[in-house]
């Protein structure tokens, strides 16, 4: 081949490489949503569900709302491993009238787990080789927050979390308060050791009062925490759920959306993502992320307004621990709301109060332009 021919090929390759590079950069950019670009179409509904590259991992993010100018709420799900994105739209339809609601399947959860792991079964190697940690999840959450702020063109968002999600959201607020208007927590997880110790004592007292021999046999056999075997946490949780079934029921809308039918036929979504996240939380020998859950030791200085909603009959994140943490919080404003006859898991009274506090906070802390 002559020199001229070689030069043409080299120029062509450079051109192609440049083209592909530009495409890769475009995929990594965050573009302002078309509904947020012009005042003329600001009433356009938002309905977006897609994988977003967060921390180098494709993570599932959904955005739904009626009006791009509405305040944005990032819902941080609990578990870990229990995403909210799968639930029917009717669960949050009242929220979406006044807010743009964002759900994020955390690393190791739901559709994000499906994107991370292609194997049909959870293996020991998969579990041990993955270095999921509180720090990684906090960084992911802040990156998701930045994505939302840029995507929807708002400087700050509201953040709300329940149970495990309340711990993660509080860590995010502590790390970067400038990204958030205010925080609404439900069934606040404060401290791993204190939570399970107080939970164990409370549940055992109820079992003694009721003469519940089956529960007492289990509780006495495993003894009080700290525990090294994951099954102990599961045994306590099952007793808690049995007792809490007597409190306010789950909302009628608490059903899986038809869009997620195929996900629930995939064991990676329906089974293994929750198992993976739970084991990462507890650890195979009591050495999981739970040991890094201690908000009362690291995160009482919060620089944004705080709302905490607590069920008075919560047997997992018991009110005693939550209230002690609340009293330690230093914040511009804070409010503790107790819901009567309410346990740990979401129910209609807690959801209604969550919406009320979001509305109250938005009216008080978000300036109208």
Task: Provide a concise account of the structure shown.
The protein is α/β, with parallel strands linked by helices and 369 residues long. The protein has helices at 3-28, 93-96, 110-116, 124-129, 134-152, 164-175, 192-210, 213-222, 230-244, 261-264, 267-282, 295-298, 319-328, 348-365; strands spanning 46-54, 57-65, 72-76, 100-104, 157-162, 180-186, 306-311, 334-339. One of its GO terms (cellular component) is cytoplasm.
What does this structure look like?
The structure is a single chain. The protein is an alpha/beta fold and 369 residues long. The protein folds into 2 domains: 35-190 and 251-365, Alpha/Beta hydrolase fold, catalytic domain (Rossmann fold, 3-Layer(aba) Sandwich), CATH 3.40.50.1820; 197-242, no CATH class. 46% of the residues lie in helices and 14% in strands. The chain contains 14 helices and 8 strands. It has an 8-stranded mixed sheet with strand order 1-2-4-3-5-6-7-8, with helices on both faces. Helix 3 (110-116) crosses helix 11. The protein is globular and about 65 Å long.
Helix content: 40-55%
**CA radius of gyration:** 23 Å
What's the CATH C level of the largest domain? Answer: Alpha Beta
* N-C termini distance: 66 Å
- Give the number of helices: 14
How are strands sequenced across the largest beta sheet?
A: 1-2-4-3-5-6-7-8
What's the CATH superfamily of the largest domain, by name?
Answer: Alpha/Beta hydrolase fold, catalytic domain
Q: Classify the fold: give the CATH topology of the largest domain.
A: Rossmann fold
Average of the residue pLDDT scores: 86
Low-confidence stretches: 1-28
What can be said about the biggest beta sheet? 8 strands, mixed
Supply the number of structural domains.
2
Gross morphology: globular
Number of strands: 8
Note the beta-strand portion.
Answer: 5-15%
Question: Per CATH, which architecture of the largest domain?
Answer: 3-Layer(aba) Sandwich
The assigned structural class equals alpha/beta
* H/E topology pattern: HEEEHEHHHEHEHHHHHHEHEH
